[in-house]
Amino acid sequence: MSAHADAAAASAPGSNFGIAIRRGLTDGAGVVAILYVILFALYALWDRSALTVSGVTDLSNNAAPLAIAAAGESLVVISKGFDLSVAGIVSLSNVLMATYPVEGPGGALVSLLICLGVGGAIGVLNGILVAVLRLQSIAATLGTMIMGQGLALVIMDAPGGTIADWVSYTLTDVLFGIIPISGLIVLAVVALWLVFRRTDTCMGIFAVGADETAASLSGISVVRARFAAFVGAGLLYGLAGFMLSVQTATGNPSAGTPFLMLTFAAVALGGVSLTGGRGSLLGAVIGAATLMLLQKVLFSGGVSSFYTGIFQGAVMVLAIVFGSVISRLASTGARA
Amino acid sequence: MTSVRPSAALQPPADTRRIGRIRSETISTAAIFALTIILILASRFVSPALGSWDQVDTIITLASFLIVVAFGQGLVILVGGLDLSIASMITLGGVLATTWNGSLGSEWVVIPAVLILCAGIGALNAVGVIWLNIPPFIMTMASGIVVASAALGYTSGTPRGASPDAFLALMKGSVGPVSAVLIFVVIFVLLACALQSATAFGRRLYAVGANREAARIAGVATWRPIMAAYAISAVCAGFAGMMLVGYANGATLRMGDSYLLPSVASVVIGGSSILGGRGSFAGTVGGAILLTTLGTVISALGMDQGWRTVIEGAIIVGALLLLREDLIARLRNRSAG
Amino acid sequence: MTTFRKLLMTTCVAAGALASACMATTSSASADDAKKFKIFLSLSYSGNSWQSEAANIVKALAQTPPYDKEVELKEVISGTDPQAQIAAYESMIDAKADGVISFPISSTALNRTVKKGCEKGVLFFMYDATVTEPCAYNVSYITAGFGENTAQALVNALNGKGKIFLSRGVPGNSVDKRHTDGAMHIFKEYPGIQVVAEYYAFWDDRTTQQETAKALAAHPDVDGIWAQAGEFGAIQALRDKGTRLVPMTGENSNGFRLALADPEAQKNGLKGVSAGSPPATAGYAFKLMMEILTKKRDLKAMNIQYPLPWVPADKVTLCKGDTFEDGCNTFPDGKVPSSFVTEVFSPEFLPELSLKSALDGAPTPGKTIQPLPAEVVKAPNEPGINCQKCDPPADLYKLTKIEPTVKP
Q1: Distance of CA C348 to the CA centre of its chain
Q2: Inter-chain contact C106–A307, Cβ cutoff 8 Å?
Q3: Are B279 and B267 in contact (CB under 8 A)?
Q4: A295 touches chain C (CB under 8 A)
Q5: Smallest Cβ distance to A154: which of B138, B307, B320?
Q6: Percent of chain A with pLDDT strictly greater than 90
Q7: Does C216 touch chain B (CB under 8 A)?
Q8: Hey, are the CB atoms on C91 and A153 less than 8 Å from each other?
Q9: Is C52 close to B157, i.e. CB distance below 8 A?
Q10: How far is B216 from chain A (nearest CA, A)?
Q11: R_g (Cα) of chain B, nearest Å
Q12: Contact indicator for B308, B315 with CB cutoff of 8 Å
């Protein structure tokens, strides 16, 4: 009898919504989204241009490369690994695009394929080293990162080159007058994730990250799951390099270096557990957007340069504490 | 019941192995050092002056900073964490040692004071990680950013002051034909290995790193080893900063940055698991020396920086392939047979 | 639940405190701002003496009368990520800046944002590092030929023969490339000169010391060293090995200049020239920008060349006070660290400065802003440095400071 009552209660639309909210809050993505909204509100309060189309477009263009890189990194982190090669792949794809610009929309497609190809190739290499040969991911990808950076230097020894006009003008522009195209590309990545999340491969990645032994005993191919994570990550890093070239309209052999620390910070901020098995790509994307927004908020809040570092550190720590408080509240609330 | 002595045929065969089995950790550490020596000898092809005692002395001197820092980083990684604040702690140790030297008292007062301050900051990292459940990556990254900002503001950008004499003597002096740094490194490595692998404190670190819950159930107050690890890491970084100041007779504000990634790399290449619970400092020392040697040999190659970087990365991957677990296990099984 | 409520309360209070601390550190009342020029000092890299001295000089000038009443200066440090500096520029443009004086992290990545700012009427002045965007003013010594002139000085000191080290800057950087290309252009003319080691020292004293030590391990019989910034580290590396020193050229650190003038060092073989990047460029750029904003000068966007300092060993003169008076150009040992970059003063362009300005960013009491000389030197076109689609002059690597004493 009580089972019926429970079932009836559970199917009532109000409580479903409540459950969905709670799940959203306990999932890291929800928490960092709240943080982003708060920061954006502060930003809009202090700087009127935050709410204009050009303001939003600037934010989107600025955050897109890191957001896509963080998305790739989160795949590897969920599978309980570290992928340092993001710095090398971003540099390499940026440099290739600037050295071999191809005009027009067809050219943009060719450049995109080159970037994806480079990222995918290094992702395959990472996959072989880590999944098949069982090297520690942090060490193996350190090696491939250094090789990638070296190749970038070989191709271009100083900043320069040109990016095709169509790429740098159209892709930083807006669609229908209000939607930034870079934002659409990030949304496309998120949409792909929402589809991918329901596939067996993705389940495998989560399982392997949570408990490798249990996963392999359940029949999941650990090698294939890890391999897929690294290749997927490599492709996304290539795309991130493409978007970076779009924004900076130039080639730079050290373009990827800042991405190393920032990508991991974005992933951690987005609620993806660095010990594997938990988290969401969407969280990493929002985490990246939050990091880039933070700089703007601190600027418009008038924080002087000396204090900027202190505030950045304090905000990062507070954000995590805030997040864990919220998620613990939500989960105890669900149990109550 | 009559006691029946089992007949000879039923007794287990006598243990005829002459030597005890060598632990896989020992083999992997030996392998790293073997690789380093091969690299040094191979560098003779690059330049005849290499492969000499002089080069080894230079390498040990240059590796000394990394060895000290990697010890602290290794302890934190052992308990399952990561310390990204060491770059700023190196800078802090060096900057404060020069700025306060003489103005706040004799260097024998200043040096311990700075190291205690570093330990305090390391303990703060541990507080955030243990009680506020902040992932070590974020906590140490945030504290690193804060400390770097504070140092920038405190010195207005130009750290003033000279190195404490103690560190000048350490880095530039020699005892007979042997440089003081070399002696220091040997003593430090011996003490650190002993601390990590042969004391109860070290065992607690391994226990907490391997399985924190099990350690807690076994009665270990898990917060103590973890806090000690972070504090020691900060102290090691601060000390390394002072060594750098002695080497260059001055401090600069970003001098720790180039040691962050190599410290993690040394620990991981040395055989420790990034997830904690396994590894030895001897392996880390091997990793640090291998990386420094690699850098020395690479910079002696007369080719474009791009290709040099590619080769450096390829050698790292190659070293990892040679040092990997299943290869070591096969070697060990063959040696015991 | 109560513990979590407490934690939640603490977090909210902390967040609130953070937000109000943000407001508190905002600069004072916006009522006055309408009359003042809004100038942003945009730094990227921030960790070494050179950067701090340049920034301090600008800050000191902004507080010197009459600019202290006319200028509201805000410093923004973006770090080494070009995207962070892009975001900073965008914020400055949105904040309706009158002028941005900046050390750009990339010669090309910031162009689009700079162009947007120019269209909105913001003046962009870049010091030392340059951008290839035509609407920005570049004020730099880069085109003045550091690489080729110092290379020739080294060749002269070595009589055209010998093994040398090349101590470079940051890999993949256009300034490093320009200097090295200029130097190699000269070295290639002399078959007796052999570059036995080339390393990247990241313009840092200690890294130079470490890299030079590694190179010395491979080539202990080096005859000379050509160095970019960080050169004093090379001398330390040589001294670590023994007493022998070699002819060297480097940039402007106080330690290097003191060593050049030291009779003991000269006896041990040190000869050379101190030339290189002057932080004073930042002050010159700032004053130029202010003269345009206060309508005392009419100058369209152009690339301006700052003179290359040139101090051979026999011209090193110790300063008795806190400024460059009587032609002095080096500070006594102990007054400043050895990594202090000495070229912070220019009696011609920046008479308002003293040592405290460079060290702390403080204005010099009693001084007021003096007008700059009317003439500005136009910099030659150098693709990749200060222009995109342009051709370099035919005599790109001509020697301006020194004559060759040895025939190739």
Answers
A1: 18
A2: no
A3: yes
A4: yes
A5: B307
A6: 49
A7: yes
A8: no
A9: yes
A10: 19
A11: 23
A12: no
**Region A192-200: what's the mean pLDDT?**
91
Mutate to test the interface with A, among B130, B141, B272 (most CBs of A within 10 A): B141
Cross-chain CB nearest to C86 (options A62, A262, A321): A62
Binary contact (A314, C7; C-beta < 8 A): no
User: A174: which strand partners?
Assistant: A180
E-assigned strand segments in C241-362 = 248-250, 272-275, 303-305, 310-312
Residue whose C-alpha is closest to residue B226's, from B121, B129, B115: B129
- Please give the Cα distance from B176 to B179 (Å, whole number): 8
Name the β-bridge partners of C40: C74, C100
Amino acid B259: pLDDT: 94
Residues counted in chain A: 336
Considering CB atoms only, which of B55, B172, B250 is closest to C240? B172
pTM: 0.87
Taken in order C342, C346, C349, C355, the sign of the CA dihedral is positive
- Interface predicted TM-score (ipTM): 0.84
Closest CA to C208 of C181, C184, C238: C238
In 3-state terms, what secondary structure has residue C295? Answer: coil
Residue type, A37: V
Tokens encoding A321:
């504490």
pLDDT tens digit sequence for B7-56:
656 777 766 665 566 676 777 788 888 888 888 888 777 777 776 777 88
- Rounded to whole angstroms, how far apart are CA atoms B82 and A4? 50
C-beta of residue C358 within 8 angstroms of C-beta of residue C279: yes
Q: Does B249 touch chain C (CB under 8 A)?
A: yes
With contacts defined as CB-CB under 8 Å, which chain C residues touch A331?
A: none
Burial class (CB in 10 A: 0-12, 13-18, 19+), B90: buried
- Count Cβ–Cβ pairs < 8 Å, chain A vs chain B: 139
Residue C82 has φ and ψ, to the nearest 5°, of -60, -35
How far apart (Å, rounded) are the C-alpha atoms in residues A64 and A239? Answer: 10
* B163 — pLDDT class (breaks 50, 70, 90): confident
Taking the CA of residue C332 and the nearest CA in chain A, the distance in Å comes to 30
Q: How far apart are CA B186 and CA B173, in angstroms?
A: 16
**Dihedral sign computed on CA atoms, order B12, B15, B20, B23:** negative
